[in-house]
Amino acid sequence: MEAGALRDDVEVEEEHVLLDLYSVSEQFDLPPNAPYVLSGLDTLNPILVIDNKLKLIGHYEETIGTCIALTEESTSPINPEATGPSEVNKSSGKCNMNPNQCPSKQVKPVACINKVLKFKLLVDTNVPDASALPLMKVFN
């Protein structure tokens, strides 16, 4: 087998982490599309630098119970001709739905969250500039 080749029988275990910025968002205005650098995910205290200005330090907390991340997708309105008995008034045979109804939304599970990564402001001045941090992920 070639070095670096993946074996078919090896399972890759994924762990999903939720970044919790609630306590920081109350103190600072966080731009929704600001670039950020997240480093040290494999350490006890990862560092998050937002817009190369705001430096945060995180700590992991295990989730209690089931924590699921969901996504929302738009769907088209239900077609009255294709509906089942629950959508049709059986006594009159007419549909109870408004034909001008807005598109509905469908919620689907994306992932099960294993840990929550909570952040607070990092006040240590010895932390290097974001460009000097070991880069884990850069998002824009």
TrEMBL record:
It comes from the Eukaryota. Gene3D superfamilies: 2.60.40.4370. InterPro entries: GTF3C6-like, TFIIIC_triple_barrel. Transmembrane segments: none annotated. Signal peptide: none annotated. Pfam families: TFIIIC_sub6 (PF10419). Residues 12-120 form the Transcription factor TFIIIC triple barrel domain. This is Transcription factor TFIIIC triple barrel domain-containing protein. It comes from Eucalyptus globulus.
